[in-house]
Amino acid sequence: MDVLTRLAALLIAILLAIDAFAGGRSETLRIERHSRSFHWHHGDDYRLHFNGGRVESCKVGRPAFDLLSDGDLVSVDSSRVFKSCDSLRRGDEVLTQSPLRKWLLVLPMAFLLAAALGWIQFEGRIGGVRRERDWWFGW
Questions:
Q1: The domain containing residue 30 runs over which residues?
Q2: Global pTM?
Q3: What letter would DSSP give residue 105?
């Protein structure tokens, strides 16, 4: 595998690790507005938009969308690198929480780290000739 590709895979794996395992960031934000996106093939997307914070908006479920009003103050926990919403609270009440998001980052992180360290080889032989740019596990 090309050295630049392995270096890029290592860099992305490090960013995913920092995002998954570094402590989150919490800030109190005021809800500026609500937005709803309609999708015919799966449910609607509900999003709360904030002003004056590090996080611009959070995707929430319908109950949190209906419960909160414009101008409400909420506490938003977000990740450090990609600024994704981990939880949304009003006072002591947890409105939304995504506990599996950090653990789901482990799969692509492990794959990229294995590729960067050379544990996964992206090369193969066809007719005795070595092909270095065959990206799918030598198939």
A1: 3-114
A2: 0.70
A3: T
- The total of structural domains in the chain comes to 1
Residue 98 lies in a domain: yes
Pairing of strands 25-37, 73-78: antiparallel
| CATH code (residue 52) | 2.40.50
Per-residue pLDDT tens over the stretch 4-21: 888 999 999 999 998 888
Instruction: Read off the pLDDT of residues 58-92 as tens digits, 9 standing for 90 and up.
Output: 988 888 899 999 989 999 998 888 888 888 998 88
DSSP assignment of 5-65? HHHHHHHHHHHHHHHHHS--EEEEEEEEEEEEE--SSSPPEEEEEEESSS--EEEE-HHHH
